[in-house]
Design brief:
13% strand, alpha/beta, Rossmann fold, 253 residues, 2 domains, disordered N terminus
Length: 253
């Protein structure tokens, strides 16, 4: 058998159905995988509003948010906007005035009003839940869009509240592998029985592999060079591709 035929066999639907046959739990990322927001980086806006390291902010580069500031925002469990802004500001010895509070409230309101669920994700979640797979969320998230996204008639019907692993509640954020350990412990299963589904190689895929989970990269826009993706990682263009590869959950998990 030549190299080409071996590679084709390895990436065939039958190969992946076999490789994923023991999966009982689907751990799913939120932003970029299941949901999107037209307010592209509200935490960058928060950094700008507080005047923290504004010289490093590039409005055209969402990744220019300060890493330490990002981590604090993602791991601070304060549910009201005023209290949150003051709590974050205190971590960096910053003061908060009324104008900053108003500006931040606008950011929070905008994020909640312009967040939505990808159609392919909603369809896949509906089908896979019906097939008996346990659905768990593992997300870098602050508290503000939770109510609108996880209302019972939206994502709430797919992800039980006790299986939602939010960074702001856990006090730890991706790519720290600890959040993935907490996810499989929360699901009361072995990491090898979990498939982590996410759109970010460094935040979702690599740390999940590090704790023993299997992983699926949702690369809708072919963002990643295949050469950078580790062997054993399933790559799909749509969440709906998983419907054909996960025919049913094991009888018991």
């Amino acid at each position: 058998m030549n190299t080409t035929s071996v590679q084709l066999a390895k990436n065939s639907p039958d190969y992946w159905r076999s490789a994923l046959s023991g999966i009982s739990t689907l751990c799913v990322d939120l932003w970029g995988t299941v949901a999107r927001s037209d307010n592209r980086e509200p935490i960058l806006d928060a950094q700008r509003i507080l005047g923290y390291k504004v010289d490093t902010i590039d409005p055209k580069d969402l990744r220019s948010v300060d890493p330490a500031f990002l981590n604090v925002c993602l791991t601070t469990d304060v549910r009201d906007a005023v209290g949150f802004l003051r709590s974050v500001a205190s971590r960096f010895d910053l003061s908060v005035n009324a104008q900053q509070v108003d500006q931040f409230q606008d950011v929070v309101d905008q994020e909640s009003s312009c967040s939505g669920v990808f159609f392919d994700a909603k369809n896949a979640l509906k089908v896979l839940k019906g097939r008996g797979f346990k659905l768990s969320l593992v997300s870098n998230l602050w508290s503000f869009p939770v109510d609108c996204l996880f209302a019972e008639d939206n994502l709430g019907k797919y992800f039980p509240e006790e299986l939602r692993v939010y960074s702001f509640v856990e006090g730890v954020s991706k790519p720290d592998p600890e959040i993935y350990r907490r996810a499989y412990i929360r699901n009361k299963c072995h990491p090898g029985d979990c498939l982590m589904i996410g759109d970010h190689l460094e935040n979702d895929i690599l740390p999940a592999l590090a704790v023993g989970m299997k992983a699926c990269l949702v690369d809708r826009n072919r963002k990643y060079d295949p050469a950078t993706i580790p062997d054993g990682v399933l790559v799909v263009k749509s969440m709906e591709d998983l419907i054909a590869l996960l025919p049913e959950a094991p009888a018991a998990y």
